[in-house]
């Protein structure tokens, strides 16, 4: 049997479409973990990145935090926290957030730093407050890059959220881990395919968000 | 500005004990070589840069007295290379300050449209984004944006530096017109001395190291440069350029060298002149000719010498009149009225005398004295301004 026939068999089995272990349920769980982790990471990375980028201060700290966070292995972190606090959502969220913060923080910082300084100077010269300068002058221009940081974070979280299954949680990772355990390769390949599809959907969502949110004057189209 | 000094943290003294009194409702130009502290001086006026020493007073009150955003909102600021917001349309760029100070959207946009017209931008550009505009158009938007909330003070930092000479001249004329109509107090930075002389009511020449070399009206700058530095900076032809400040209205024009195309033999023979200017039936110039080459009743227009470019006494300066005389094949300049009809002709020699009188008189004001009423003698037409 080749991979395609595994995929075909997995998705055509009607048993895979119902119940607590059905595809809709697992997808929903997976998307929930992803959104939650991404939301937390954005809540940390965006304000920090915007602020450091705007003031130009703390650039070294940003780089240090990002490198340190990247050095942490997600799976190791999961196991470590699970051992300390026990099984639950926390051991899943921590590694996912740690994974997602660096791309968001670093790209946001770089995006704001790279905004042409003359409009900022003009805005300040016309008496605009610093918050308005950041949100109404710098952010709209930095937005494409900021979104690209969020996008790569989202892609990484979507694929890494499979580790939730190791601590008895759901998500698409269930198929992969259970499949490996049960030597049910149809399940493994089916789960992997779902993750890949979800990554593609994520790309599409960000593409649409960019079309909607970025001004044509910045897109230059 | 009272003895203002700016020392940057790295020790650079950008402005050194500068004292300036910037007059209300006029254009003050800061000019000087690159790096002499013009931008720094300008930016101390809206507190984008804080002086290290000295005080700056606005209408007698220390600038530090009011909140910095209030101060800045009362001053339009045009930065070099425009600094437009690329994510906003042209209309919204111009409407930024009105929106910021709480005008409604509709009112702000109407105001923006009005300003686009004022700076000579086509209304159809309003919906475009900055990247879709040429450099000159962007600079106009920058000026319109600074004018939008009708601030009494306008600070402009090399606003016309990125455009070709033709567009630049247009923008300069527009600025002079805006200043005349709206009576703004404008502080204008440039490194181009010609621009300074053209625009300035007062010109502050600065030298490297942030020191004031001279602060004077342009005509005085040209006639009495304070030192070698200012003289050098003004360039070699300052004598000629100074003529721009003397009106040509006082020139004595003669009409006895002017004949109609239908002139009689008697008229052609009368003047003792090497050349005569022939005009058409309406009095417009056709060209010069030697009297003996002309036959009464049969003057061939094709055979005439070009009369060059005429000048208009009253609106043109002595510089324009001299230019006409120099360009004329006969050495005589042709003066015409607003409708292009010949008012008279004037020789290089007469213009030279007028120049000597004007220079002797010292400044523009006294030069006008040559304009005093004078008995109208036969053949001499006096053209008033
Ligand atoms: N932020 C700064 N920190 C240190 N030095 C500065 C700073 N800004 C300007 N300078 C220095 O101060 C001096 C005056 O600068 P300024 O920008 O006022 O010159 P300028 O007359 O506007 O020159 P240009 O015609 O080239 O624009 C220069 O020697 C410049 O290098
Ligand atoms: Mg400058």
Any overview of this molecule?
The complex is a heterodimer of chains A (221) and B (385). Chain A is mainly α and 221 residues long. Chain A has one domain: MetI-like fold (Orthogonal Bundle). Chain A has 10 helices and no strands. In chain A, helix 3 runs antiparallel to helix 5, helix 4 packs across helix 5 and helix 7 runs antiparallel to helix 9. The longest helix of chain A has 33 residues. Chain A is elongated, with a radius of gyration of 21 Å. With 385 residues, chain B is of the alpha/beta class. Chain B folds into 2 domains: 242 residues, 3-Layer(aba) Sandwich (Rossmann fold), CATH 3.40.50.300; 114 residues, Roll (CBS-domain). In chain B, the strands form 6 sheets. In chain B, strands 7-8-9-3-10-11 form a 6-stranded mixed sheet, with helices on both faces. A 3-stranded antiparallel sheet of chain B has the order 2-1-4, with helices on one face. A 3-stranded mixed sheet of chain B has the order 13-14-15, with no helix packed on it. In chain B, helix 12 links the parallel strand 13 and strand 14. In chain B, helix 5 packs across helix 6 and helix 13 runs antiparallel to helix 14. The C terminus of chain B is likely disordered. Chains A and B meet through helix 6, helix 7 and helix 10 of A and helix 2, helix 4 and helix 6 of B.
Main attributes of the structure:
heterodimer; A: 221 residues; mainly alpha; MetI-like fold; 79% helix; 0% strand; B: 385 residues; alpha/beta; Rossmann fold; CBS-domain; 2 domains; 6-stranded mixed β-sheet; 3-stranded antiparallel β-sheet; 15 helices; 21% strand; disordered C terminus; binds adenosine-5'-triphosphate; binds magnesium ion
């Amino acid at each position: 049997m080749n991979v395609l026939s595994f995929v075909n068999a997995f998705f055509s089995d009607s048993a895979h479409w119902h119940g607590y272990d059905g595809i809709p349920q697992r997808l929903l769980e997976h998307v929930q973990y992803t959104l939650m982790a991404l939301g937390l990471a954005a809540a940390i990375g965006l304000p920090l990145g915007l602020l450091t980028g705007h003031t130009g201060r703390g650039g070294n700290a940003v780089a240090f935090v990002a490198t340190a966070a990247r050095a942490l292995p997600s799976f190791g972190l999961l196991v470590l926290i699970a051992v300390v606090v026990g099984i639950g959502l926390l051991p899943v969220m921590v590694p996912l957030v740690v994974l997602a913060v660096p791309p968001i923080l670093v790209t946001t910082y770089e995006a704001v730093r790279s905004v042409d300084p003359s409009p900022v100077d003009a805005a300040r010269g016309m008496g605009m407050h610093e918050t308005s300068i950041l949100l109404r002058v710098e952010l709209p221009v930095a937005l494409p890059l900021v979104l690209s940081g969020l996008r790569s974070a989202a892609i990484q979280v979507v694929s890494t959220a499979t580790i939730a299954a190791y601590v008895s949680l759901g998500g698409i990772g269930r198929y992969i881990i259970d499949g490996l355990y049960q030597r049910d390769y149809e399940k493994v390949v089916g789960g992997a395919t779902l993750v890949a599809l979800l990554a593609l959907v994520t790309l599409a969502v960000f593409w649409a968000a960019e079309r909607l949110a970025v001004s044509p004057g910045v897109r230059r189209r | 500005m009272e003895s203002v000094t700016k020392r940057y943290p790295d020790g650079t003294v950008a402005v050194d004990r500068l004292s300036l009194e910037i007059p209300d409702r006029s254009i003050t130009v800061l000019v000087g070589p690159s790096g002499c502290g013009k931008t720094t001086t300008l930016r101390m006026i809206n507190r984008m840069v804080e002086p290290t020493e000295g005080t700056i007073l606005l209408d007698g009150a220390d600038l530090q007295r009011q909140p910095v955003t209030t101060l800045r909102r009362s001053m339009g600021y045009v930065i070099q290379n425009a600094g437009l917001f690329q994510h906003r349309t042209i209309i919204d760029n111009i409407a930024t300050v009105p929106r910021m100070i709480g005008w409604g959207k509709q009112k702000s946009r109407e105001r923006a449209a009005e300003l686009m017209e004022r700076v000579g931008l086509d209304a159809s550009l309003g919906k475009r984004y900055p990247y879709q505009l040429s450099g000159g158009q962007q600079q106009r938007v920058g000026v319109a944006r600074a004018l939008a909330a009708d601030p009494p003070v306008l600070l402009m930092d090399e606003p016309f530096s990125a455009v070709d000479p033709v567009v630049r001249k247009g923008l300069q004329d527009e600025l002079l017109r805006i200043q005349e109509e709206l009576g703004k107090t404008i502080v204008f930075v440039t490194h181009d001395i010609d621009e300074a002389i053209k625009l300035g009511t007062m010109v502050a020449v600065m030298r490297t190291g942030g020191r004031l070399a001279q602060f004077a009206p342009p005509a005085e700058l040209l006639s009495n440069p304070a030192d070698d530095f200012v003289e050098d900076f003004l360039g070699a032809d300052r004598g000629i350029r100074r003529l721009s400040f003397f009106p040509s209205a006082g020139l004595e024009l003669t009409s006895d060298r002017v004949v109609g195309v239908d002139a009689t033999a008697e008229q052609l023979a009368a003047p003792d002149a090497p050349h005569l200017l022939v005009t058409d039936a309406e009095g417009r110039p056709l060209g010069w000719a030697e009297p003996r080459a002309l036959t009464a009743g049969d003057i061939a227009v094709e055979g005439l010498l070009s009369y060059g470019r005429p000048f208009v006494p009253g609106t043109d300066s002595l510089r324009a009149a001299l230019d006409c005389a120099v360009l004329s094949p006969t050495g005589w300049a042709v003066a015409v009225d607003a409708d292009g009809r010949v008012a008279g002709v004037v020789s290089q020699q007469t213009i030279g005398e007028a120049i000597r009188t004007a220079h002797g008189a010292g400044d523009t004001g006294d030069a006008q004295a040559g304009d005093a009423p004078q008995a109208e003698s036969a053949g001499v037409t006096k053209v008033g301004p």
